[in-house]
Amino acid sequence: MATEPAPEAQPPRAAANASPSGHFDPQGKVPSTFTIELRKGLKATLPFEDRRDFEEAKKGFIAEPPYTKIMADAGHVAWDMGSYQWLLKDQDFDSINPSLQRQAVLNMAYGLYEVVPGHIYQVRGYDLANISFIKGDTGWIVFDPLTAKETARAALEFINEKLGKRPVVAVVYSHSHGDHFGGVRGVVDEADVTSGKVLVIAPEHFLEAAISENVFAGNAMSRRLQWQYSMLLERNPFGHVDQAIGKNIANGNTGLIAPNHIIGKDIEEMTVDGVKMVFQNAPDTEAPVEMNTYFPQFKAFWGSEIITGTIHNIYTLRGASVRNALNWSKEINEALYKFGQEAEVMFASHSWPRWGNDRIQEVMRAQRDAYANLNNQTLHYANLGVTINEIQNVYEVPKSLRQQWAARSYHGDVQNNVRGVINRFLGHYDGNPTNLIPLSPADSAPLYVEMMGGAEKIIPRAQQLYDEGAYLYATEILNKLVFAEPKNQAARRLLADTFEQLGYQAESTSVRNSFLQGAYELRNGLPGGVPPRSTGPDVVRAMSTEQWLDFIGISMDPKKAEELKFTINLVTPDNGEQYAVEMSNATLTTIKGFQAKNPDLTITVNRADLNGVMMGQTSFDDLIKAGKAKFDGDRTGFDQLRSILVPFTPDFEILPGTAPQQHAASPKPFELPGDLIDVD
Fold this sequence. Notes:
There is one protein chain. The chain is an alpha+beta fold. Helices cover 35% and strands 15% of the residues. It contains 21 helices and 21 strands. The strands form four sheets. Strands 1-4-5-6-7-8-9-10 form an eight-stranded mixed beta sheet, covered by helices on one side. It starts with 32 loop residues before the first helix and ends in a 37-residue tail after the last helix.
């Protein structure tokens, strides 16, 4: 493992031209008096005297590694804990919500920690998630092997160095998000999994969920993730400070090894290497499939990502299906009553453990009630006529929950979450026909700007609102002007300044990052560097052929498909699958297990060889020449389809005028599906 620094490909480096305030962006602004006053008010009303989280975050510390950087095999920096060391200077930063700064400091834990003496350990601060090691009779049982091969490998090397080398006998994937399985190749060899020497345990439907949740909108999610996580912003008091459930996402090699043991029952027990584990399947919570684990021998409960150090996302800003807040609450309640009555330690794939039964029950109840209240209070008001466009200004977190750190929304955001609850039950439409067919912003904005009297009236009024600290009001009118006049630099600068203050004020990292990313892009365009990617051979290989064919249907340009009509049979003999693919009405459809009676073309290729086409490593023509693929019939339709496929790149503009001069290169999706990034 390399630990020396290399030129880092992640955040933009504007330090040479930084402003005198220390802001990384020369155009950046310091916190306003209104932002500072808001911060003072929060410090006066939140329970900062409760220091139990800090005691728990330090408990069990064994050792910190001598390095702060972990290098990717490709030569760039995969992980840099040192870039956040300024958080440990015991300094208040006016540009960070004080509650969020507290969380950011708690997430600075770095190194090896003992959770249950002699039995359970964690390596924290090596990635967005924690990697947990359960000591069996002969080896390690690894829970959630992080995002990247390099960080997981470094964690295994570090614990073996400090506690003695032991083989990995099993890996547990708690759920289907990439930061909980992507580093698996750093701790086990696939051949050992295939042979059964090493168990890889996962909840039912894990593989399907790990691939399908993001595949169809993966490119859009990748772009939106850059805003929610601000991975490319400077690590700075004015920029990226934390990611609520960890510091950031590791930027290394992401892999996936298929599980060889599935947990299918609601409650299922198994013993591995002398360690008894009781799994609680808890689907439709933080992820489509997820499971908690209880260790009765150690009275230790592992809360996956269902119970961590924050209230999570009901609707995540990167984009995903809205989560079920009520079911989330019920699964926590089941864990409380099944395991929480006797557990003496609770740990998870993020944050820090809690010790003592009273403390465990306190945190479980706080989070149980927070999710239930999100659901119940929101639907109470919805049934009184409050809409998705109003609920964020009506819902109030109960005072008792506001005073509990475990119920603060660092990863999720209260206003966003309650809108998500209404969206889950009632959808995006608020019942007002005016909003049934809304104009696109670029079309409606000129009308608003005209009616407001033009830029010469909007900018002074917006400046007045900004000077009064009415930032949301300022964004309301400035956003219209920027969409109507994308090249109006005065409007762009003022909207960026307004976004920045809202970012400084936010407690949620998702909200802070989104506003600060918006400010940066309005001023400078997209940041340089490359965001972390989850796409790789393992992910593509794990896709079903049907998912790949469906993605091709998404990737084709519908405006160029109007006159196309053909039928293709696809046969993959090595796995016995057959597909009928039809193009009609500018739409590509696929059905598994059928063959068209009179196809225009029949393609025969082993799925093992098709993987190469899907990963962009080879082409059908190459396979035909090598005798590994056979085309029978007229390939005209096939060639027409290939010619109208559109490559997706995660660099499209979100605000007008921010698109790059040159888009990132990307192979056509017929050869390689778009990015799959799914970490929360």
